[in-house]
DNA sequence: TTATTTGAACTGACTGGTCAGTTTGGTTAG
DNA sequence: CTAACCAAACTGACCAGTCAGTTCAAATAA
């Protein structure tokens, strides 16, 4: 904990600071993803970022705060990826407004984006699963918020499927979203760690089995 | 690391040692599940087990080895649970030999067992997901072996489903097993951490959506 | 039965080292 | 000119692993 030196101004951050923070994010992501938050020292992070230890404290105030902001940073990227996947543009306006594409295809695109993210930022995925479910965690609040944001995006996509297709109403929506969300992380990490030979599309297909089991019989959107 | 004092005899372990080891397993599981392997000290574990620090080293040689044996211990319990779930007794003997029950129901029972295990040993589940995908982990080999054992049990159950029902052959078996496996952990942990109001059966239903999406149309075993 | 021995199991103070966070006095870039 | 950064020393807490000594139950001797 640290009351903190002056600290970088919150508004209109200059270019140098932004670059420094980015370098620190990159280095932390890599190291913490490999060895865990507790297993990495601030000295190591600073060295890997090519920056002095004091700069870390100048910019973030504490190791804990650095990690909290790192989590926020990663989630912002993932959220953006999910939302820019094809078919995500049209949200629930009225009821079953006619939208462009097939929501199941949109879902598939979204899962593909999620898996691509896991490939691109495997360290973030490891950090997430490592720290997410710790009960008295320093980042409990942070995780609750970020988790909610991500599940909301997935929830919208599921909602669109549920409006276009007849779905199994005995499957609770929340648990389904959780299962999909978790499967993306786990399948992505497992592929990277234990089965690099498995393709992206195979993984997407496996996770999409979820959605195919959720919708009731017969293809054809607009149930 | 520790060449090790005499060390407890491997065969015919006396009652005292067995009890001590069990106490250490219980205490470690609890503490490590909450704060992570690196976040817990050997002193704490010893104190929580009501045992001196030296005893930990007498019995396990090192913190690392204690955790490795803890992982093995937990997996043995989980494996036993999965295998004793109803409908797991008949394995693949020839091809589609007539077995007792519906493999889909057996699958459902198995997932239920897995979720019960996650409820009963949430700390083990947290330890697993925290350390499983670390790349140069001290327990890399341990995890590879244990993961294989668990996936094999799941694989047999999936195999039985595939023999009784027509299934979607475009979904790779390995990825599917991974997804189910991971979903059990994540849904179980999420329930415990964020949504205690969700019931066991709701969670089972959500994960079973996987299997329903895997089998092609129309109910009725013995395709 | 009682005394003595043995050694596995256990104890806890101690050591050497590590690490988060601080401070200070200077340097650089915008 | 000043916010941002650097380098390096320092503090105080914490921690994995060690080891000389203790306990006690069972084996053996008297």
Features of the shown structure:
223 residues; mainly alpha; Arc Repressor Mutant, subunit A; Tetracycline Repressor, domain 2; elongated; disordered N terminus; DNA-binding
Write up what this structure looks like.
The structure is a homodimer of 223-residue chains. Chain A starts with 14 loop residues before the first helix and ends in a 9-residue tail after the last helix. Chain A has 223 residues and is mainly alpha-helical. Chain A has two domains: 13-61, Homeodomain-like (Arc Repressor Mutant, subunit A), CATH 1.10.10.60; 70-214, Tetracycline Repressor, domain 2. Helix content of chain A is 66%, strand content 0%. The interface between A and B is large, with 53 and 53 residues. Chain B binds a DNA duplex (30 and 30 nucleotides) through residues 1-2, 5-9, 14, 16-17, 20, 41-43, 51-55, 57-59, 62-63.
């Amino acid at each position: 904990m640290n009351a903190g030196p002056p600290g970088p101004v919150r508004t209109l951050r200059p270019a140098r600071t932004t670059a420094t923070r980015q370098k620190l994010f990159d280095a932390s992501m890599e190291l913490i993803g490999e060895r865990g938050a507790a297993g990495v020292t601030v000295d190591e992070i600073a060295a890997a970022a090519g920056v002095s230890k004091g700069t870390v404290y100048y910019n973030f105030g504490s190791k804990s705060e650095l990690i909290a902001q790192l989590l926020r940073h990663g989630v912002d990227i993932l959220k953006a990826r999910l939302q820019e996947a094809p078919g995500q543009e049209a949200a629930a306006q009225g009821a079953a407004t006619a939208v462009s594409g097939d929501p199941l295809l949109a879902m598939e695109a979204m899962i593909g984006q999620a898996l691509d993210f896991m490939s691109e930022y495997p360290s973030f995925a490891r950090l997430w699963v490592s720290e997410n479910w710790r009960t008295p965690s320093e980042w409990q609040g942070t995780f609750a918020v970020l988790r909610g944001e991500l599940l909301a995006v997935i929830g919208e996509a599921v909602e669109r499927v549920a409006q276009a297709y007849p779905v199994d109403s005995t499957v609770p929506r929340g648990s389904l979203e959780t299962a999909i969300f978790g499967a993306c992380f786990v399948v992505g990490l497992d592929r990277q760690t234990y089965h690099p030979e498995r393709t992206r599309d195979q993984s997407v297909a496996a996770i999409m089995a979820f959605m195919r089991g959720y919708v009731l019989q017969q293809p054809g959107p607009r149930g």
